[in-house]
Amino acid sequence: MNHLVFSLPERILALIAGSINIAVGLVFFFLPEFQLTLWPGNIPFVLARFIGAIIIGNGVGAIWLVNEREWARVRPLALVATVYGSLVAVGLLYHLLWLKASPLFWFYLLFDVPFLLVFYALFIYHDIAPRLRNSRMKYTRTS
User: Fold this and answer.
1) Which of 35, 52, 97, 107 would disulfide-bridge 28, Cβ 3.0–4.6 Å?
2) Residue at 62 is within a domain
3) Does residue 41 belong to any structural domain of this protein?
C-alpha cells in the first residue's frame, strides 16, 4: 500500500464513521423533540443542539472524505476528528474516574475509543511511519 493514498477500505471506514456521527448528531440536535434520556444529567436544549451540530459537522466531513484519494487532502479533517475524539475521551475519563460520573458514561467512552484507534492508526501509517523510515534512510546514507 502507498502511504500517500487514502485507500478504498479507509474511505469505506470514513463512510461508516460519518453515517454513525450524523445519526448520533441528529439525535442530539433534535433531543428536545425526541425527549430521550441520552445523558446521565439534564442537558439544556441549546447545548444539546450545539453538541448535535458539532457531531453532524464531523459526520458530513467524514462522508466528504469518501471521494478523496490523497491522504494529504484527508489529513486536516482527520486531525480535527482526532483532537476532538481525544479530548472527548479525556473528558469522559476525568468524569468517570475522578468525579464518579454515572456508569452510563462508559458507554460513551466505549463508543469513542474505536474511532480514535482508527484515526491513530491512520496517522501512524500515513504520517509517522513514513517520516521515521525517511529519517532512518537519511541517517544511513550520511553515515
Assistant:
1) 52
2) yes
3) yes
Asked if residues 68 and 78 have their Cβ atoms less than 8 Å apart, the reply is no
Domain assignment present for 2: no
Closest CA to 6 of 75, 53, 56, 52: 75
- CB 91, CB 50: distance < 8 Å: no
Q: How far apart are CA 122 and CA 72, in angstroms?
A: 12
- Other residues' Cβ atoms within 10 Å of the Cβ of residue 32: 13
C-alpha cell of 66? 469518501
Task: Return the number of other C-beta atoms located less than 10 Å from residue 10's C-beta.
Answer: 23
d(Cα 119, Cα 14) in Å, to the nearest integer?
10
Task: Give dist(CA 126, CA 71) in Å, integer.
Answer: 7
Please state the domain count of the chain.
Answer: 1
Amino acid at 122: L
DSSP lists the bridge partners of residue 31 as none
**Tens-digit pLDDT profile for residues 32-61:** 787 777 676 778 889 989 999 999 999 999
